[in-house]
Every structure is written in structure tokens, then in C-alpha cells.
Amino acid sequence: MNLLLVYILLFKAVITSFSGMSSLPMVRDDFVTKRHVLTDRQLNTAIVAGRTGPGPNGLYLVSVGYFAAGLPGAIAGLIALITPAFLIIPMMSWIGRYANQPRVRSAIRAIILASAGLLIAASIPLTKDAMTGPLAAAMVA
What we know:
The protein is mainly alpha-helical and 141 residues long. The chain has helices spanning 3-15, 24-34, 40-52, 60-96, 102-132, 134-140. The model has no long low-confidence stretch (mean pLDDT 86).
């Protein structure tokens, strides 16, 4: 997979989410459903790898980049993960002027609720795969 495309897709997922795991629905849609670059099992593995070590919850994006394009993909995932940190200072100064308006606060609350719903919807197929996959069968036996 093209490295620039990996970066753009992961950056889109990071920039449109509020925290680490809320980018999961977009990542699953782009990499598993639309482009068939990853399987649900690989995405589960990336999530486990990202959650195992210390650091931000969104670190699983580095593993997604690795599964999509090898070591260069992992580097693209890391760069996509840290890019918003460099953009937040100008954004906060702009948003800070309007944060006290009731419409803006209501919009932020609505976006947070929608993000939670999308996260639940994306987690259901991953949960099914984790409960019916070969690892689950080995745990039962």
C-alpha cells in the first residue's frame, strides 16, 4: 500500500477523533472494509500490541501502519499520530474564542456522543472475531 495513502488515512482517523480508541471506526472502515488491506484479526492484533505497552491509547495506529506497509508504514503511522500535536496550539487559540457559546458547547457534546456510538458499532465485529477466532477456540479446549 502507498505510504502517503497510509499516512493520509491514519491522519484522517486521528484528526477526526478525540482520543486514542475513538479513531477505531474510521480505521476499520478504511483498512478492513473498503480497501481490504487488513483483516479484523490483524486489527485486533494491532489494538492488543498498541495497548500492551505504555503510551497513548492511539499507539495501535503504528501497528496498523506496520500491517499495511511494513516498517515504513509503521513510521507513517507514528508521524500521523504525532502530527495533530503540532496543530493543536493554533487550533486552541481559535477555538478558545468561541468555546463559551452555547451552540459550540452543544455541538461538542453531540460530537462526543456520536463518537461513542461509532466506537461501539466498530467494536462489535472485532469482538465477534475475538470470541470465535482460533485463539478463543484454544482457550475453550
